[in-house]
Structure formats: C-alpha cells, structure tokens
Specification:
The protein has about 1250 residues and is mostly helical. The strands form three sheets. It has a two-stranded antiparallel sheet.
C-alpha cells in the first residue's frame, strides 16, 4: 500500500479549515491498487513502505483518515497492506531494514526478526521512542493513537478474519522477545496498546450481549400471540455471533497477555516494565468484570517491589484508579490485606514521587473503609506531616485530615451559626493541639500547619474560635485546656497567622518564591485584614492573661509583625493600640529573659513604620521607654563600676546591661552615646579579669551595634567629617579591645570577641568603598600581621579539636547528642567567619594553608566549608590558590618529618594520608585543563623546589631530604597538559625538573630514589597513564603502580578502562597568565616550613592527621528494612510473590523457568552501541532484598533543619539583615 502523503496532509488541512476533505473511492482504490508496484513489481527498496511511518511521525494528519486508507488497501490486497503494516512496526523500532514480499511469504517470524536485527545502525543507540527533539516529541502518542484507531475501525469485520490480527500478534510477540532493546520496547508498547484496544472491543461486545439477552428474554416472555419468532431467531443468531466474536477477542487477549505481558512485566528495562503495569491498570479499570481479580492483581503487587521508582510509581497510579471507585472495593479486599504492608512501607520510598502516590493511595483506602488500616499503619503516615519534602507532607496532611478531622458535628437547619468555642471547629482545633503534643515535635508547629493548609485552611483560619478557647471560660461539662495545651494552641495560632500573611511555606520546604495569582493576592489581603481586626482587639487581653509566661508571651508578641497596621486607623482601633503599647512596656519591665526582650524590640520595630499614621504614637512610647532604660543603665553602671563586687549579685544590673544590647539590634541608639559607657565597662573587665561572662558578652554586642548604626549613618552621607573621625577612632579602639579579649579565660567571651572581630574586619575592609561609597575610604581598616596570626591561632585551637576536647561541654553532657550538635554548629560558624576573611582577601590567602590541610582529617565536620573556600579562592586567584594548596601539603610533610624522621616508610599511614589529601586537591581542579594550566604548572614548580631545597646529609650521592615529596606531587601530574610535560613550551615541567637533577641522579635505581623515578614517569608526554604514582611497598624493593588497565580485546566500544572512579569536583574559573619565569634556582638552605600560626601546645592533638586518613569521609545513613516476604496471593499461585518472580540469580531463574508454561529469554547481544544493554538484559530482573534496601529511605524531618552541616551561616553577630550573609555550601 502507498499512502499518498500529499493527499493525507491536504485532507488534514481541509479538516482544520472547517471543510470535510475526504478522498473519493476511486482515489482510495487507486492508492490501494498501485501500492508498492512499478510495472507490476513490488517495490522493495523501502521508500514507499516508509510512507505510513512518516505520516505517523509527523503527527499532523487525522489518524482516522490514515487508518481508513489502510483498510481500503487491505480490502483490495491484504498481503500488501499487511506487509506495509509489518514494515511500519519495523521502522518504528528504528530499524533501517525492510521486509520484502518474498521474506514475508517464505520466512518465519524468527528469521525475519534475525534479518532485521542485522540491519540496525551500529553507531546509534537511539530509536524513535527514545530520540529527543521536537520532531519526535509526539511520536509516541501518535503511534499509540494509530494502533487504537486501527483496532476501533476494524472491530466489526477485519479483526475476525483470522489473518490480520494473528499476523500482527505473532510479529509483536516475536519482537518483544528480541535481544534488541528497540524491538522489545516498541513491540511491547504496541502489544500493550493493542491489548487495551481489544479490551474496549470486548467491553462493547459484553454490553451488546447483555442488551441482546435482555431483548431476547423480553421477547420470549411475551404471550404467544404477540411473540415474534423471527425476531427471536434473529436475536439468537446475533447473540451467537457476539459470543463467537467475544471468544475470538478473548483468544487474542490471552495470546498477547501470555506471549508478551507475562514476559515483559519483569523485563530488564524499567520503561518496558512500566508500560506493562500501566496498561494492566487500565484493563482492570475498564473491564473490571474480566480483569479485576487476584489472577491479574498479583502482577501489580509483585511489581511494587521493583528497583526502579518509575515502575513502582506506575503500580501506585494503577491502584489509585481502582480504589477511587468504591464499587470495586469488595474485589480488592484480598489484595489489600496481602499488600497493605508494602503500600504502607512505600510511604518512606527514596523516590519522593513514589512516596507521595503511596500516601494518596492510602488516603483512598481510608475513604473506602476505616477497618483496613491499623493504628500503627496510620501513625507511620502521620509523622510524615513533618517531612522536609513539601509534596510528601501535604499528602500526609490530607491523610491526617481525612482520618481525624473529616467528621464534624452536624449543624441544625435554621439554627444561628455557632461561633467561638461553641463552633463546630472547636473540637477539631483541640484535636489538632492534641496531635501536635503527642507528636513530640514541639519546635515544628509551622510544618504541621503547612501540611494541613491546603486541605484544612478553613479550620486553621478560625482565629475567632482559637481566641475564644484561650480567653473564654469553658462551657458546663467542658474540660478546660491545660497550660501545656494553651501553649501549643498559641504556637499553632501564630503559625497560621504567619502562613496566611506570608503565603509561603516555612524554611526548608520552599523551592523559591512563587508568583501569586490575583486570587491568591486577594485572599492574602482579606486574611490580613481579618486577622488584624480580630487580634488588635484580642491581643492586649491575651498579653495581660499570660504576662508572666515567657513562652506564651514570646509567641503572642510576634503577631503584630503580620498586621495590616492601617486597620488601626481605618477601624478606629487606636485605644486598642494604646492598650497594646502599655502591655509591651509592662512585659519589658517584668521580664529578664533575652528571647522575650528581643521579641519586644522587634515588635516595636514593626509598629514604628513611618508609612502609617500610628508611627508618631508608637515612636513616642518607644522613646520614653528607651530614655528610662538608658538612664537606668548609666546610673546602675556607675554604681556597678564603683562597687564591683557588690553589684555582681544584683539581678537588676544584669537585666539593665542586657536591655541596651537587645534594643540596639533593632533600634538606633546612637543618640544616647552608649559607646563610651560600654567601652569603659569592657576596659574594666580587662583590668580586673573577673567580670561575669554575660555582662561582657552583652557589652561587646551593644558596642558592636553602636558602631554599625554609626556606619549606617555615614553610608547614607548624612554624617559630618568629625563624626567620621570619631567613628574611625571608635572602630579601631574596639577592634583592639576585641583582640585583647581573645585571650580571655572564658570560652564564650573569646568566641564572641572573635566573631565580632571577624565581622568588623570584613565590614571595614577595602570592599566597603565599592558601589559609589568612596567617601568611606578613611574608615577602611587593614589588619596587622599579628592580628591575623592571632585569629588563625584561635581557629586552630578552638575549631580543629575533638568533640571531647570541647571545653563548652560539661561532664554530664558528654553523651548528649543535642549538645554535641550545638557545639559543632558553633565551631562551624567560627570557621566560616575566618574563611570569609580569606575569601574577601582581608587576610593573606596563604594563611588558608593551615585550613586546607585539615580537609581530610575533619572532612565530616567542616569538609563543605573548606571545599567552598578553596573554590572561592581559586576564582579570585588561581595561581595563588595553587601555591596555597602546595604549601599546605609541604607543611604536613614537614610535620611528618619532625615526627617520623627522614627515614620514614612511604607505606606508612602518615605519608599515605598526605598522598590522599593531594589526590583530593587534584580533583578540585576539575576537567578543564586549559583554565587551570598556569596554576598547575606553578604548583609543580613550587613542589619541585621544595623537594630539592634541602641537600642530602650523606653528601652528593644521597637523595635530597624532601625527595619523597615528589611522590605526593605526582598526584597532580594528570592535571598537566601534555604539552606542558615534556615539550619546549614555557611551562615545561620536565625541563624544570631536570635543572635540579644531576647526571648521577638520573642513573639511580635504589628504593630511596623511587619518588623521583615515578614523578619523571608521570611527566612522560603521550603516556597512557596520567595518574601514575609509585609507592614503596612493605618490602624494601616492593612497589605498587597505579595505572590504567589495558582494555581487553573483547571489550565493547562503550567499555572504559578500569580506573579508580572518583567524582570530579568543580573546576576553577578563567585561566591566568604564567607569572613567574622558570629560572634555574640556586640550592640554598631555606627556612623550615611550618604553619603560618603556631598552635597552643596544650591544645594540639596527640594523634596526627595521618592516622585518620583511611577514614573515608562520608555521611552514613542506616536504611530502614521494610523487606517483608510472604506467601502467594493465593495458595494455588504458580508464581510466588517474592521467592520465585523477583529473582536475582541466574540459577534461581532457571528453577523458576522449569515450573512455568512460558520461556524466558537468554540474551546475548553482539557488540553494538545499539545493543549495549548486555549487563541490563541479564536475567537477574529483581532482587527483593536489594529492592527493599534501595527503595526505602529515611524521611528528613525539620528537626534536622538548621543543624545540618551542609548549611553554613556566615552571620556571626545578630545583625539582622544589615550585616547578615547566608552562604549555602553543599558537598
């Protein structure tokens, strides 16, 4: 058959234009008669046979018109038309071969498939179903539509001729068992869609049979006088024909199911398995009477243990379509009881999409019946509302809402709507509080609210009911809320207000800011208006009731931050504002808790908004309060300095010293001259040395804020020249004061002084004059070398320590995991503060060598910070970064020599640890050798100079003392470009090496000279191994060479050489210029390389870094084992659920095949890129144990948020948005 492409496309155009473009019968006949023939001979060059494939590929034509043309051709000459259809399937598989008429008549299907396999393109592994691009975007849908329309149009005659369908099914069955993935994938998809189309036909036949039977019964029940015998005979004949047709369809479906599905639902390719499971779900949903039974459901249940997430996902979506229809629930009882545990375990699937669909499936099960899921099953879903992954949490929230909140008290018709604690939501809100308390995750109410927001927003926004539960007396017979329940309710109420006002999820769940729709913005404005009207009135009495409870007050005082402050004026609520200000003032006077006072300060800041008319009123109240606090502070401070010992025990002094620091964080107190009094207090603390740590810490923070507020004024250009001079003096004096406090005996004071000092050095560095702020140049402060050394010494003594060495941990808290995490978080912040100084060139980059050399030893604690610092420094200056890296290795090498001596064993853990660190450093340079060319060459230059700088103590015949360092340097040889190794380029490393070597050195072959030999070998240009290194073995002459393995002759084209596989880390930025000429150095004695800052001997580690180099830095997570094996779905099943079907060994698969009516394929592919799935197609399809281990993950709860080592907060002081920078460093 030739499908006239131009006619088809033109017909499609006419149809789109609103006209019916249909070819005449003569045209169809002509197309069918001359199909594939020239001078009476069939065309075998494939050009005409590809026409049907081209039409489907374009996807622009009306598919029914294409199918109608083929049907007309089939009616004229069924062999020619069927040959075109066969070639269509071959072409859709990506095969260039064409089945000729002679092959079709004389060859078996297996022979044809073997011939077509030889015609595959050896250079490409793609085929139409997998090719990307706009041309193939709609191919799959067009391909499936063609098969569906073909069966639908042939359902009344052609499919029953025992020729067309038998041929197609036989061909697809053979192709589906092919060794070639393209054939298997395409034919399986075609067979499954063909089966779906036949299911529709069978369903129509079943409906027609039922109608015919009813008509027959109705006619037969008539009295003899009215009964039409002819009609009865016609109905009997029709029913017989329908029964015969149905039997034919059932035979076809059985052939496809047993010939294709039973084999391919466990294919090695996940896409093929997913197709099978997706389609069987469609069959059971469409024709439940025939397919919705345990014989078919078991395949879905078995495949829920699949290794691939996409297959497990198809299982769940297929089951959702069944459980959604409550009429089918009775047929699913046995399946539910057998596979319920597996579905519950899939809520913890490592693929989040699978976990979401598993929870949704359980929600549908819950809707059908409450008896299936046990309390333990429900609890395993409940805790997922605290998941960090928002879709999982929302799905779990919907499940929770259906389970606990779906039953409301019915309201009587005509009765007034109940409000407050009498409303129907009152009990539901109490239930929410009870659940929150029982979950024992009190810090994460925001995540619970976010999970329930989409399904229960109406309940969560019933603030009137919440206020009533807190303020009103309980009704007769009602149990009042306990203190703990009231605290939880206030926290939940605050979270609902925040969610309604900000319209974005809490930290850790958001994927970035989402643009809100007009409807969402209107809802947000309405919610803010309503919450302001309610809480503006209710907040003062709530504060009055809970004024002495710090936790409740802290949450309540955050509510005004989300108000629409204009409502105070438009709603005539000024008296309530006055009441609120009085309550806040009383709270400030009563409380000494830092958290409460900070919230009061932020509330004043939120209310003092100049855009609203209430600003003057609030500003006056704030100023009066600050005047009183500052006066009290100065008065008590004067007394405190005069009578130091008596004042230490006075709590009001501590409180009054605390208040200015808290107020300074959000309010400008520069007009009260707090710098002088605080500086005097700090100076007294230095002189006396016994001042309480809290007073010193608060005074440091307060002074810091005063300087920053003065800087903010100077940045705006509103300050005078005298003010700039004063600020410069204050800043330098305060930096010197912080430097003096670095030697304080109290660790907390030292950490606070270090943090503030790092902030000030960064803020007042040369960076501050950028962005048009040249007038601030007099304020620029450059740190001296002594200060840099002291800062580095502090880092080495307080950060790079063991957990047990942390002096902040008390004896009773050594085993407290929370305390250890908090201590680690503090140390990470300290290290981040110093790394900022390196990144922004505030301190010399070479000081980073002392940080970089700790990369392996403290990888788990600070690896992400150190790695990001290396990356940033490389972006600033590649060559200087490379010199810093080699300097860190030289320092470690010298430390090893001082510990082990020059006669150390190169197989020792210390030396191997340095080599491993060098290898890690090498990986950070990435794959782009052009960008890092100059930096790598300079690194080798410095390494060579270091290796030869100290001559041998044995005379000229002995090796240099540091010659073994070349073994470490060889780890970077793979990053050299070949032309930089031995060629005559200006960067010739080999030539530079030879300038240090003598003729006698080149002839040496003793073991002590192996580092030089291995390093020279690694510089061989054009060698097969760029990563060769030689290491001395445990014997005197033993050595091991790490080199590339030779590829075996039988390896396929896609097989790579067996090398050590390591993740390539990010490359550096743009290339630099070779800055130093390769001059012949003079071998003069140079100073011994040590750390750029001396560590405190008392704090030094006894065990060196080298002893730990073998501890692979990786984060371990113990998988949860949900592997539940059981017997078959039914005792008579010939395929057990796990033990037989989900095989992982060839021997067990052979045992399975012996008991089956079908054969499994034994795949042996020829070497071809198109058929490179040799490892994929081996018959270990499923291993249930490994499936379960890989498919189950631990849910990341928000309890870990903020404590995760992958998030680095560079905000050292609590400067809110003005001096706070957050950098995410991810390993």
């Amino acid at each position: 058959m030739i499908i006239n492409l131009n006619n088809v496309l033109w017909s499609s155009i006419l149809l789109k234009g609103g006209k019916k473009g249909k070819k005449a019968a003569g045209e169809k006949g002509k197309g069918g008669k001359g199909a594939g023939r020239i001078n009476g001979h069939h065309q075998e060059n494939g050009m005409e046979n590809m026409m049907l494939f081209e039409v489907v590929k374009l996807g622009r034509s009306a598919m029914q018109s294409v199918v109608d043309d083929w049907i007309e051709s089939y009616k004229h000459d069924r062999d020619v038309a069927l040959l075109d259809l066969i070639n269509f399937f071959i072409q859709c598989s990506g095969c260039k071969g064409v089945v000729s008429g002679e092959m079709f008549r004389n060859m078996q299907n297996s022979e044809i498939i073997r011939r077509m396999t030889e015609e595959f393109d050896e250079d490409s592994g793609d085929y139409p179903l997998t090719i990307a691009g706009p041309q193939w975007k709609k191919f799959k849908s067009s391909f499936c539509e063609f098969i569906s329309v073909l069966v639908r149009q042939c359902q009344y005659s052609i499919i029953y001729d025992e020729y067309m369908m038998d041929t197609v099914i036989s061909l697809l069955t053979g192709l589906s068992d092919s060794q070639v993935r393209a054939f298997r994938h395409t034919s399986t998809l075609a067979a499954m869609k063909l089966m779906t189309a036949l299911v529709n036909v069978a369903l129509n036949l079943s409906i027609n049979m039922d109608n015919t039977q009813r008509q027959y019964e109705a006619e037969r029940n008539k009295i003899m006088a009215k009964r039409a015998n002819d009609r009865l005979e016609l109905l009997l004949q029709k029913r017989k024909e329908l029964q015969e047709n149905q039997d034919e369809i059932e035979n076809m479906m059985n052939a496809i199911f047993k010939g294709v599905f039973v084999h391919r639902y466990r294919d090695a390719i996940a896409e093929i398995r997913a197709i099978c499971i997706e389609e069987i779900g469609v069959w059971m949903k469409l024709y439940s009477d025939a397919f919705l039974n345990d014989s078919y459901l078991k395949y879905v249940g078995w495949t829920m243990h699949d290794k691939q997430g996409e297959v497990r996902l198809k299982c769940l979506t297929a089951l959702q379509g069944l459980y959604y229809n409550r009429e089918l629930n009775a047929r699913l009882e046995l399946f539910t009881s057998r596979f319920k545990d597996r579905i519950v375990s899939m809520t913890l699937d490592k693929e989040y999409d699978v976990a979401v669909q598993a929870i949704k499936l359980l929600t549908l099960v819950l809707n059908s019946t409450d008896e299936v899921l046990t309390p333990e099953d429900c609890e395993s879903v409940y805790h997922l509302v605290y998941s960090a992954h928002r879709p999982v949490a929302i799905a779990a929230g919907e499940f929770l809402f259906k389970k606990l909140f779906s039953q409301r008290e019915p309201e009587e018709e005509g009765a007034p709507k109940r409000r407050g604690r009498q409303s129907p939501n009152a009990n539901l809100i109490k239930t929410t509080v009870f659940f929150f308390l029982e979950s024992e995750l009190h810090e994460h109410a925001a995540y619970l609210v976010d999970s329930l927001w989409e399904c229960g927003a109406e309940l969560l926004k019933d603030w009137e009911c919440m206020i009533s539960l807190l303020l009103d007396d309980p009704l007769p017979g009602e149990e009042a809320l306990t203190d703990r329940q009231e605290t939880a309710l206030i926290e939940i109420m605050l979270c609902t207000v925040r969610q309604a006002a900000e319209c974005h999820p809490p930290i850790g769940r958001g994927t970035g800011k989402r643009v809100m729709t007009a409807k969402e913005r209107k809802t947000q404005l309405d919610d803010k208006t309503r919450m302001t009207e309610l809480f503006a009135v209710a907040l003062p009495p709530l504060l009055a009731k809970y004024a002495v409870d710090s936790e409740k007050v802290t949450n309540l005082l955050q509510l005004p931050q989300y108000f629409d402050l204009e409502i105070y004026t438009t709603g005539r609520l000024e008296k309530h504002l006055e009441s609120l200000l009085r309550q806040i003032r009383e709270i400030v006077e009563k409380h000494t808790d830092t958290e409460v006072l900070e919230v009061c300060s932020k509330t004043y800041h939120a209310l003092c908004n100049e855009e609203f008319t209430i600003f003057n009123r609030v500003d006056i109240a704030r100023s009066q309060l600050l005047d009183e606090l500052v006066d009290k502070f100065n008065r008590l401070l004067e007394d405190f300095l005069q009578e130091l010992e008596q004042s230490f025990a006075c709590d009001p002094v501590h409180m009054c010293l605390n208040l200015p620091q808290i107020c300074c964080s959000a309010h400008d107190l520069s007009g009260w001259d707090l710098f002088t009094s605080n500086f005097k207090l700090l100076n007294t603390g230095i002189e006396n040395g016994d001042m309480p740590e809290q007073i010193v810490i608060h005074s440091l923070q307060c002074t810091h804020y005063v300087i920053l507020w003065n800087l903010a004024k100077s940045s705006e250009g509103s300050s005078r020249k005298d003010d700039m001079v004063t600020l410069r003096k204050q800043m330098r004096a305060f930096c010197m004061m912080c430097q003096r406090y670095l030697t304080n005996v109290n660790t907390a004071v030292k950490e606070q002084a270090f943090t503030i000092l790092c902030d000030l050095l960064l803020i007042f560095s040369h960076q501050m004059v950028s962005g048009g702020r040249e007038h601030l140049e007099p304020l620029v402060y450059s740190s001296e070398d002594s200060l840099q050394a002291e800062l580095l010494s502090f880092i080495l003594n307080h950060v790079f320590i063991d957990q047990d060495d942390d002096t902040n941990s008390t004896d009773g808290q050594q085993d407290d995991e929370a305390v250890k995490i908090e201590a680690l978080h503090k140390r990470r912040n300290l290290l981040a503060a110093y790394c900022k100084l390196i990144i922004y060139c505030v301190v010399d980059m070479k000081t980073g060598a002392d940080i970089f050399k700790q990369y392996m030893r403290y990888y788990n604690d600070y690896g992400d910070i150190i790695k990001e610092t290396m990356s940033k420094t490389r972006q600033i200056d590649k060559i200087q970064c490379a010199k810093t890296l080699i300097l860190s290795l030289q320092q470690l090498f010298n430390e090893m020599l001082s510990e082990l001596g020059h006669g150390f064993d190169r197989s020792s853990s210390s030396f191997c640890g340095i080599k491993e660190l060098a290898r890690r450093f090498s990986l950070t340079f990435g794959l782009d050798q052009v960008k890092t060319r100059d930096a790598i060459a300079m690194l080798h230059k410095d390494g060579i100079e270091f290796a030869f700088k100290d001559p041998s103590t044995q005379g000229e015949g002995g090796p240099p003392l540091n010659l073994a360092f070349l073994d470490i340097l060889s780890e970077f040889s793979s990053k050299l470009m070949k032309q930089d190794k031995r060629t005559s380029s200006g960067r010739n490393v080999h030539m530079y090496l030879e300038r240090f070597m003598t003729f006698q050195m080149a002839l040496q072959r003793e073991d002590c000279w192996l580092p030089l030999i291995s390093y020279r070998n690694s510089l061989q240009a054009g060698g097969d191994d760029d990563t060769m290194s030689v290491m001395s073995g445990y014997s005197s002459r033993g050595s091991s060479v790490r080199s590339k393995k030779i590829k075996p002759p039988g390896a396929t084209a896609g097989t790579s050489a067996a090398k050590r596989k390591l993740p390539e880390e990010e490359s550096s930025s743009s290339s630099e210029v070779w800055q130093q000429s390769l001059q012949t150095p003079v071998m003069l004695p140079s100073p011994h390389l040590t750390s750029t800052a001396m560590r405190d001997p008392k704090r030094a580690r006894e065990d060196s870094f080298m002893g730990h180099h073998q501890q692979t830095p990786q984060h371990h997570q113990t998988p949860m084992d949900y592997n539940r094996r059981g017997t078959g779905l039914m005792e008579e099943d010939e395929e057990p659920i796990v033990e037989d079907v989900m095989m992982s060994s060839e021997g067990r698969m052979d045992d399975l095949n012996e008991g089956m009516d079908f054969d499994t394929m034994d795949i042996d592919l020829p070497p071809s890129k198109n058929r490179r799935e040799r490892s994929e197609l081996k018959p270990d399809y499923f291993d249930p144990a490994s499936i379960m281990d890989e498919s189950v993950r631990g849910i990341c709860l928000p309890s870990l948020i903020g404590k995760c080592p992958g998030v680095l907060f560079l905000c050292n002081s609590q400067l809110e948005a003005r001096s706070c920078t957050i950098i995410r460093m991810i390993l």
